[in-house]
Structure formats: C-alpha cells, structure tokens
# Entry
Amino acid sequence: MSTRTLYLMRHGAPVLAGRMLGRTDCDVTHEGIAACCVQAEDLAVQHVIASDLRRASRCAVAIAATRGAVPRIDPRWRELDFGAWDGLDSGTIHADALGRFWSDPDAFPPPGGGRWSALGVRVASAIDDLPAEPVLIVTHGGTMRAALHILCGFALPQLWAFDLPCASVLGLRVWDEPSRGGQIIGLWP
# Structure
C-alpha cells in the first residue's frame, strides 16, 4: 500500500476581504502573497497546482517562482459559485437564506449559484488527476472543505468546524487503498 502527501493552501487575503467570493476573480493583496510564500517555505513538494482565479493563481506563481518552477493552473480547484451572492458582504444577504445555505448547500444553493454536490464532483476529478509526488494546491476555503469530505469522509457539519483563514495550509496523507481514505497530518494557520 502506498501513500501520497498533499497540501491544500487557502489563497492569500483578497483585496475584497469579507465578501462571498466564489467566481469573483478579484486580486490578492501583496501581504496575502507574502503570507502564502512564508507558509510554503518548508513544504517538501514537487508540484504546485492552483485554481485559475487570481487570488489563488498569483500566490501559486510566487510560491513556484521561489522553487524555479511554474505552477499548473486547474480551474477544477475554483471556489463554489455563489451566484447572485457572489461579491456581496454576507451581512447584506437575508439571514434565513444564508442560514439554509450553510445548513445544506446542496438543497439550498445561492440563487443562480452552484450546488455543493457539483463542487464535490469537480474536486474529486481534480484529486484523481494529482501526481503521485507531494503536491501543494493553492485553492479556496470551500474547495478545501470539499477535498476533506472526499478524502477523509467528513460530514458537512464537521467541515464547517474547520477554521481555514487565508494562507492556511492543511496537510493530508492519502492512502491508495480506498478503505483507508485520508488522514490529516497538520493544519498551519
């Protein structure tokens, strides 16, 4: 039985902090990029992959540059599409609608937005295509939670318990044997 190691990093602080950022392609702050580079310094990875959204891809480009590499950009690592809520401050969204979404994002997706199950299918496909060598994936909070669900079997209420601030890193050891699943090996805030 073989294992592989992957690190999921949430992108650096976006310029539109505090908003529901799904498909909104806003930039990342210089401080956010620097924080991601610091977090990645001691990670022994051979590949860097990123969401195609700028707040993730710019961080990945900076990290890969310190290693003399170029990241692979993969849109399957994008955040959930928040539809009509995308780009809004969560305080401006009707509390009941937002509460229903957080309790069951598949049954109550944002108006015009994506379903949690579709995000899971997309992330599962991206995971299936990961290289066997240690890899760093610069992505988004929702996408990281979807990966935890797929690899470790966490239920949705458990996924919301993970605090994944910008530039945080989640290390996973994944067994090739499906019954073993994944194991969290570290969380770096």
